[in-house]
Model the fold of this input.
Amino acid sequence: MKTKRIFNNAATYLALILLAAAFLAPVFIVVMNSFKGNFYISDEPFTVPKGETFVGTENYVKGFTQSDFLQAFINSALITVLSVACIVLLTAMAAWYIVRVRNRFTRLLYYLFTFSMIVPFQMVMYTMTYLAFELELSSIPGIVFIYLGFGSGLSVFMFSGFIKSIPAELEEAAVIDGCDPIRAFFMIIFPILRPTAITVAILNAMWVWNDYLLPYLVLGSGKKRTLPVAVQMALTGGYGNKDMGALMAMLVLAIVPIIVFYLFCQKYIIKGVVAGAVKG
Amino acid sequence: MASIEFRNVAKSFDNGKVTVIPDLSFAINDKEFVVLVGPSGCGKSTTLRMIAGLEEASKGEIYIDNKLVNGVAPKDRDIAMVFQSYALYPHMTVYKNMAFALKLRKMPKTEIDRKVHAAAKMLGIEQLLDRKPGALSGGQRQRVALGRAMVRNPKVFLLDEPLSNLDAKLRTEMRSRIALLHKQLQTTFVYVTHDQTEAMTMADRIIVMDKGIVRQYDTPQKLYSEPADMFVAGFIGSPSMNFVDCTVRKNKGKITVDFAGNSMCVPEQKAKALVPYVDRTVVMGVRPENISAFADGQNECEGCVITAETEIAENTGGEVNVYFNLADSRCVACIRTEQKVSSGDVLKLFIDGNAVHFFDKETTGAISAV
Done:
């Protein structure tokens, strides 16, 4: 019995290690190659940089100085922060309204939100881009607005599920204590929603930060371009040649913020703040 | 400290499709402890929520402290409410939970601190002030919920089944604590429960509700000894009152009731009221505690001796609940006996004629001499 359990545990761990390795390998290869010279990246992509293949921070300096990296970074950061803030705040409020005010209109609203989750982006991207141009949304505030629309389906769905588990008595207690609905939301409901809000924030931040297609279509590759577009456009030489070393370095710089954000937030996802609110 | 009055209040939901309360009128005096009791869905919680302002009355007028409060926001009614699920804010410490309402009212910090500590001391939760609700037991959460209501020093305390989530022992303890709190605070308490024991032990007066109407509003003792109808009679008391159909007869100027081959002489005081019912069927109500094991030499004239075959016997320690059939009705008797009673045992039981109640079979109202 004990041997079987040890074997099962070992098998589970092995499977998880292999899975982790499969996910981490591309990141590791990119980091490794960002310290190699251009020739060695294509010649020996899977070796560790050392001796003559190791070029130090040269690729990073090149990537940072010879492309419009900083501007793209600021654009991406601004779009991500604003979009995520809008999505978290507004969809939490929308979900609260949908769950607490139960009528035909809110039910329809809920179905529309959930339906929007299953519509693939590629299906609407041309019409949407056209509309964005028509409405003069080809700007950073404009794309934040579009992201709010695209991100709201999943976010409303997630918030609604959580709000259903919050007893309405909490809000009633707040109302008796002297809160108006807005205060009740911000002082009682929103703090309780924190675990879901952080999950929603992480999912949307990863998506917005890494998104290529929407910013490329709406903002183009000019001054308003975001980081993924900038990485793709940068350091292109004659005949489509690319400085692969600098490209790798830019990729590393581009993924660092989102990894840091994820690591910082992940402990909050696990916390169940609502425990103990009611008899459990 | 305030009186509460309901004048012809009605409450319906779904645009009038579902009427929960058709027409409700009652008055609660200042500093009184009134319990709203009734089965699930009888409208007692809705009534409490209308006092709180969480539900608006569809019709009628509600007065708190002689002021019309229809349309007044809950926060402006000067009431505090303790919920069944406690409704403590999970992200705040006990201290912050208790201080929340005072903070919203922009009370000075020192005053808040003094009030919170005074309430916490009174409830014995001072050592819990830094904890969050998740780290508290059910009883502790209940006391925090009471404390949160107390600090505000409200005119009216509303309690919505506050003990129903606690275990039996804790419930008994909290029951006396709430009763004591009422004495100390000298405030009007309105308490909702479906547990008649809670109602009987705590209330100054009880409102028994059924299907949105008040069946009887009186002191616990009156409800027990003079129930207005079969509903109240059956609801108050545990185990419930036994109901047996019987026929009223007049023999040689004396009123008797016949049931299942037995004839019981009705005491003079009750007999007067039964005169209009001679040769008609009425319902006799007997509380289980008014049926005892018949002892030889007992005065048979003051009641009726029946023979019953025990269906089930429940030993509760001091007493035995004996279930038996009488005139097609399932009855129960709480008897004090040293003897072991088992299923199938045939017992001689004595119904105390002075303690029986009679009800009109059609209207279910109590038959009493006016």
Notes: The radius of gyration of chain B is 25 Å. Chain B has two domains: 4-235, 242-360. The interface with chain A takes residues 52-54, 73-75, 79-81, 83-91, 100-101, 104-105, 132-136, 138, 141, 148, 165 of chain B (CB under 8 Å).
